């Protein structure tokens, strides 16, 4: 039988080696409640890292891997998270105020309660239900790119990214023609009129 102690210091041990060696490839990792303000984590590997309540404000993460990372209540204020892979990342209550998430992949990530005022999600890949939840309270304008948070998410009547993501092309924009249910279509185009 395994017993778990509720001591939070045990959680820090989970990622201690990664933090000391700066990640799997020697180019980055984090420990819980760590402070990494304005650091360069370009192309760093934070896969499955426990980044809870850490401060990464103003840091650069271009091309970094944050797959399956736990960044609960982490502070990414003004951070550059463009071109990052954040698949299945936990960002609950994270502070993404004025952060740049341009072209980031956030599939199956959880941004519940995240602060997104002034964040730029332009061309980011986000699951439709998550995007719809963020649109309910998205506001502000990114000070670097000048793009409004709502426009970058495709909220409201804007058709840009309003229906899905680049990974779901049939959902991205309602197609004018679709394959019929039997797969038989016009010989010239291979498509049929949508009904």
Describe what you observe in this structure:
By secondary structure, the protein is largely without helices or strands. Helix content is 14%, strand content 4%. It has five helices and four strands; from the N terminus they run ααββαααββ. The protein has helices at 9-14, 16-20, 128-135, 149-153, 169-172, and strands at residues 105-106, 125-126, 177-178, 192-193. The strands form two sheets. The protein has a two-stranded parallel ribbon. The protein is globular and about 35 Å long. The N and C termini lie far apart (59 Å).
What is this structure, in a nutshell?
The protein has about 200 residues and is largely without helices or strands. Helices cover about 15% and strands about 5% of the residues. It contains 5 helices and 4 strands, in the order ααββαααββ.
**Number of extended strands:** 4
Structural class: little secondary structure
Can you tell me the overall shape? globular
Beta-strand content: under 5%
Distance between the termini: 59 Å
Major beta sheet, specifics? 2 strands, parallel
Strand order of the largest sheet: 1-2
Mean of residue pLDDT? Answer: 77
Q: Tell me the number of helical segments per DSSP (H or I, 4 or more residues long).
A: 5
Could you give the order of the helices and strands?
HHEEHHHEE
Percentage of residues in helical conformation: 10-25%
Rg (CA only): 20 Å
List low-confidence stretches: 1-16, 21-28, 157-184
